[in-house]
C-alpha cells in the first residue's frame, strides 16, 4: 500500500489490485461508520481509494501505513440481478474478439459473477468486474454520439450499464429496463461500489 | 401558483441555479457541483439576508433579466455589471429593493465572467441529493434557465445587510495559481514539470464549469498510456493526451484516467471562475502544508 498526498486535504491510497482496492474501501467505510475516520468523500477506483476532505491527512496516512487491511473483502453482500436482452449492435464484434459464436456471448457473460468495482462517468454508472481477462475488449474506435439508456456494454475488463442516454465508446451487447439511477431513491444508485451483480438473460422486448 | 416566484424574462448565455453543491456522493459518480465563485455567492446571500446554503443564480458573460411576482431584495455580485430596475440604474454589490412586477436586468459583465444574483428567500427549486445546483456534467438539478421559465422563491428568513457597497475582489488580469505537485507528476518528464511551473499558459475559450482549459506548451509524458481510473478532486490539474493542463472545477468527473500533475490550492480556485479566455495563467509550485 502506498499513500500519495493530493492537494490541500486529500489522500490517494494505492494498492496492487482491484480486489485489494475493494477490501480497502470496505475497511475505510467501516472505520468511518465507527467514527474512526472523518472524510467527506471515500472514492474507490480501479487500484486506488481516494479520501477527500481530511482534517488530519498526515495522521490518516500514518495510521493506514501502520495497519493491516485485509487483502479481500467479505463476500456477504447483496446480489442485484439484472435482466438483459442480449441484443446489442456490437454482439458480432465482441464475439469476434472473444473467438466464439455470437449466441455464446450471452451465455459467457451471464455465467460470470460481477461486482461493482467503482462508479464514475455518470451518476449511477458502475464499472463491473468479473469476466476473466481473456474476455477484455477494446473500446470502439469511434464513440457513438448517443448510447440509449439501459445499454449493457463492455470496455477493457469492465461491464457497464448506461443510466441515461449519453455519448459512449463502449461495445454494446444488450439492453435492460432496470432503473440504474433514481435520485428519489435511497441510495439513488442501484449499483453502489461493492455490490454483487448477476446478469439474467431474457428474451423478447 | 404561489406569488413567491420570479419569471425569467431573459435567460442570458448560460444562467444556472447554484448553491454550495452536493459533496459526499462522489463514490456514486456524482460531481460536487455548486457555485464556481463560492465567496461571491456567499456574499450576495449575506447581502440579502439569506442563509449561506440558499440557492442563487450564476450568470455567464451576458447576465439575465428577471421579473419577481412579489417584492424582493436582490444583490448582484461576482463579475461587475450594470444593474437596472425598470430601466433605472441601481447598485451592484449591494442590497436592492425590487417591487413586485418590476423588471430586474442584470447586464453584460464589464469584467470577469460570472455574476451572482441572490434573491431574498433564495431560489427554491426542488433539491436533488441535498442541493439545488445545476450540474452541467451529469444533468442533475434544475436545467439552465430558459426565457419564460418560472422559478419558485423560498420564504425570506432575515433582514438584508446594512451596507452601501460590499468590497469584492476584481476579476484577475493574470491567474497566479499555487499548486502542490502530484499525485502523478512522475508521469511527466522533469522538463515538462519545469515547463508547467515556469511558463505562462492562457485560459482557453473551451473552459466551462467542468474545467478551466489552458492553451500553451504541451507537457511531455515520461510514460505512455492511461492510468487505471482513479478518484479526482476539485482543483486537480489533469493533463489529457494533447498535453494541455485542465484545472478541474465543481462539475468535474469524479474519476478519470489521465494523470494529475498537480492540484491548485483551494483558496486560489474562486479566481478561476472570473478569468476570461486569454487571461495569462501561471502555476507556482508550493510546499505541501
Automatic annotation (TrEMBL), chain A:
Keyword Methyltransferase among record annotations: no
Keyword Hydrolase appears in the UniProt entry: yes
- Which UniProt key words apply to this protein? ATP-binding, Hydrolase, Nucleotide-binding
The molecular function GO annotations come to: ATP binding; hydrolase activity
What sequence ranges are listed for the domain Carboxyltransferase?
1-191
* Family annotation (Pfam families): CT_C_D
Q: Which Gene3D superfamilies match?
A: 3.30.1360.40, Cyclophilin-like (2.40.100.10)
| Name this protein carries in UniProt | Allophanate hydrolase
Specify the species.
Streptomyces echinoruber
From TrEMBL, chain B:
Task: List residues of the Carboxyltransferase domain.
Answer: 27-289
User: Does Hydrolase appear among the keywords?
Assistant: yes
Give one Pfam hit by family name. CT_A_B
InterPro entries (UniProt xref) = CT_A_B (IPR003778), Cyclophilin-like_dom_sf (IPR029000), PxpC (IPR052708)
What are the protein's UniProt keywords?
ATP-binding, Hydrolase, Nucleotide-binding
Q: Does the keyword tRNA-binding apply?
A: no
In its UniProt entry, what is this protein called?
A: Allophanate hydrolase
Organism from which the protein derives: Streptomyces echinoruber
Amino acid at each position: 500500500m502506498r499513500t500519495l498526498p493530493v492537494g490541500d486535504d486529500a489522500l490517494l491510497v494505492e494498492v496492487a489490485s482491484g480486489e485489494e482496492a475493494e477490501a480497502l474501501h470496505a475497511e475505510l467505510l467501516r472505520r468511518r461508520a465507527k467514527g474512526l475516520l472523518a472524510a467527506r468523500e471515500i472514492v474507490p477506483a480501479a487500484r486506488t481509494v481516494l479520501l477527500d476532505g481530511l482534517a488530519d491527512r498526515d495522521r490518516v496516512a500514518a495510521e493506514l501505513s501502520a495497519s493491516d487491511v485485509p487483502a479481500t473483502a467479505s463476500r456477504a453482500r447483496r446480489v442485484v440481478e439484472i435482466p438483459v436482452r442480449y441484443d446489442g449492435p456490437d454482439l458480432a464484434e465482441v464475439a469476434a474478439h472473444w473467438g466464439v459464436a455470437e449466441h455464446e456471448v450471452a451465455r459467457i457473460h451471464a455465467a460470470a459473477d460481477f461486482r461493482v468495482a467503482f462508479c464514475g462517468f455518470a451518476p449511477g454508472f458502475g464499472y463491473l468486474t468479473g469476466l476473466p481477462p481473456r474476455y477484455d475488449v477494446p473500446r470502439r474506435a469511434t464513440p457513438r454520439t448517443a448510447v440509449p439508456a439501459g445499454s449493457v456494454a463492455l470496455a477493457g475488463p469492465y461491464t457497464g450499464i448506461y443510466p441515461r442516454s449519453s455519448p459512449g465508446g463502449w461495445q454494446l451487447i444488450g439492453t435492460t429496463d432496470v432503473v440504474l439511477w433514481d435520485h428519489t431513491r435511497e441510495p439513488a444508485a442501484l449499483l453502489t461500489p461493492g455490490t454483487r451483480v448477476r446478469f439474467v438473460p431474457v428474451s423478447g422486448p | 401558483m404561489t406569488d413567491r416566484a420570479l419569471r425569467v424574462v431573459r435567460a442570458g448565455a448560460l444562467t444556472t441555479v447554484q448553491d454550495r453543491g452536493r459533496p459526499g456522493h462522489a463514490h456514486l459518480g456524482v460531481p460536487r457541483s455548486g457555485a464556481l465563485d463560492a465567496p461571491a455567492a456567499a456574499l450576495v446571500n449575506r447581502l440579502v439576508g439569506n442563509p449561506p446554503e440558499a440557492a442563487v443564480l450564476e450568470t455567464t458573460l451576458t447576465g439575465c433579466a428577471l421579473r419577481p411576482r412579489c417584492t424582493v431584495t436582490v444583490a448582484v455580485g461576482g463579475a461587475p455589471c450594470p444593474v437596472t430596475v425598470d430601466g433605472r440604474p441601481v447598485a451592484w454589490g449591494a442590497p436592492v429593493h425590487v417591487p413586485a412586477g418590476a423588471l430586474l436586468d442584470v447586464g453584460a459583465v464589464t469584467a470577469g465572467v460570472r455574476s451572482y444574483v441572490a434573491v431574498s428567500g433564495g431560489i427554491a427549486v426542488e433539491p436533488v441529493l441535498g442541493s439545488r445546483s445545476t450540474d452541467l456534467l451529469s444533468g442533475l438539478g434544475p436545467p439552465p434557465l430558459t426565457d419564460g421559465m418560472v422559478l419558485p422563491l423560498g420564504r425570506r428568513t432575515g433582514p438584508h445587510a446594512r451596507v452601501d457597497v460590499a468590497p469584492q475582489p476584481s476579476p484577475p488580469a493574470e491567474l497566479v495559481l499555487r499548486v502542490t505537485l502530484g499525485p502523478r507528476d512522475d508521469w511527466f518528464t522533469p522538463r515538462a514539470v519545469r515547463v508547467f511551473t515556469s511558463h505562462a499558459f492562457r485560459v482557453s475559450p473551451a473552459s466551462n464549469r467542468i474545467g478551466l482549459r489552458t492553451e500553451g506548451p504541451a507537457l511531455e509524458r515520461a510514460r505512455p498510456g492511461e492510468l487505471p481510473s482513479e478518484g479526482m478532486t476539485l482543483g486537480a490539474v489533469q493533463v489529457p493526451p494533447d498535453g494541455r493542463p485542465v484545472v478541474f472545477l465543481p462539475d468535474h468527473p469524479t474519476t478519470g484516467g489521465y494523470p494529475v500533475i498537480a492540484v491548485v490550492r483551494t483558496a486560489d480556485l474562486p479566481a478561476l471562475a472570473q478569468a476570461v479566455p486569454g487571461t495569462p495563467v501561471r502555476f507556482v509550485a508550493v510546499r505541501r502544508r
